[in-house]
Amino acid sequence: MLKKACFLLIAFLFLLGGCTKDPNKQLVGRWQEIGNPKGVLVFASNHTGRAYWPDKEGRQQSEAMKWVVLKKENKVSVITPPGPVNFEIKDDRLVAPNGVVLTKVK
Q1: What is the Cα–Cα distance from 7 to 13, expressed in whole angstroms?
Q2: Which of 42, 5, 10, 7 has its CA nearest to residue 27?
Q3: In a 10 Å sphere around its CB, with 0-12 CB exposed, 13-18 middle and 19+ buried, how is residue 76 labelled?
Q4: PROSITE patterns per the record (predicted)?
Q5: What is the reported pLDDT for 54?
Q6: DSSP letter string, 11-65
Q7: Please, what sign has the CA dihedral across residues 91, 104, 36, 87?
Q8: How far, in Å, CA of 100 to CA of 106, rounded?
Q9: Strand partners for 27
Q10: Which whole-number Å values give the CA distances from 35 to 4, 17, 52, 88, 101, in the listed order?
């Protein structure tokens, strides 16, 4: 009886561990700014990517980026030449410090 209970507990813990979301895997893909189709972040699995935004004339600009998950803060730091921006990870949304919100599209 005790062996069976231990086995069930271990099986449950493995299942529970398998259900936790890995933010690194969650982020991979294309994220688009709500209300601005030219505001995009593309996260690659190797922690690189591309950031897109409109310039003052509305033309699409882009820059290579790197990214790292800040697990203790539940944030992702997107690093481009001007410097890093830390986005809060909220389920299917990324929220910038200035209030810009992106949703995952791919």
Answers
A1: 10
A2: 42
A3: buried
A4: PROKAR_LIPOPROTEIN (PS51257)
A5: 92
A6: HHHHHHHHHS--HHHHH-EEEEETT-TT-EEEE-TTSEEEEEEE-TTS-EEEEEE
A7: positive
A8: 19
A9: none
A10: 55, 36, 14, 18, 9
CA distance 85 to 37: 19
CA distance 86 to 98: 10
Which residue is listed with tokens 């935004």? 53
d(CA 26, CA 67): 13
Q: How far is CA 65 from CA 15, 35, 62, 95, 99, in A?
A: 35, 22, 9, 17, 20
Helix (H) or strand (E) holding 77: strand 75-80
Q: What is the pLDDT of residues 2-50, one digit of tens each?
A: 444 334 334 343 444 444 578 899 999 999 999 999 999 999 999 999 9
